[in-house]
Amino acid sequence: MHKTNWDDFRFVLAVARMGSVSAAARELGVNHATVLRRVAGIEDRLGVALFEKSVRGYDVAPEKLRLIEAAREVEIAVKAVERLAQAGDTPLAGVIRVMSSDTFCHAILPPVVAGMSLTSPGLSFELLCANAQTDASRLHADVIVRTAFKLPDDLYGEVAGQLAFGVYAAEGVPEAHWLGMSGLLGRAHVAHKLNERLQKDGVVFRAAADSFMTLRALAEAGLGRTMLPCVIGDQSPVLQRVHAPIDIAPMPIYVASNAELADAPRLRQARARMTAALQADAERLLGLAPAAA
Question: Does the keyword Oxidoreductase apply (predicted)?
């Protein structure tokens, strides 16, 4: 096997990061043909195909995840050496792709990533908002933040706190007027229990949605009562917490990564810092912070 120059991996990582040859070429400031040639060259030297080509673009082949992550660690190390030569500092740096639900992306994660960015100027984030449990194994995400009683086998992570729920309504909304949870949201344990209880009581939902953010907007419009994470219900200047017909237990919040990549140093460090930030926000996540005026 011929020796591989680090510069060759820049082209591979750009394609993995951007998802297409054209986008990688724009990021690197070269033409489309150059990227194709450099990627093909490194695949020939390694004797492996790094990408699967589809209508969506270029996806990293699942069995090559470790190879790509190793290259990304080298990229971080090279940049760290450059910073050491200039300033003697080696902070967490690079792009961290964080996948979570719209609730977390809107109401919980922005101050977390802002705080991390302040202490690590070389760090940037891409928030991937997906209420469905999208496959994270194809380098769609470095860190996954989600509520669950237990992580699936393909994820490894730590519990960073608990997310409390409550029932909310605008002033004057009748007790019999409710909003339902549909789609994947309706299959969640707590949502299923609430929907089951309300249907037994003969409640006909006036509207339904598969997103807590959408349910909050519908409740603010006066359509009915709804269950919400307290962290978004308490933020509303229109809604107030009302009696819940069932006991709603808090859900564990996990900060996780793909199990095959979880030991990568930069991912361990990113998860640890995000976990610490969420733990510091425990009061608000549990619905114990003062409600909006």
Answer: no
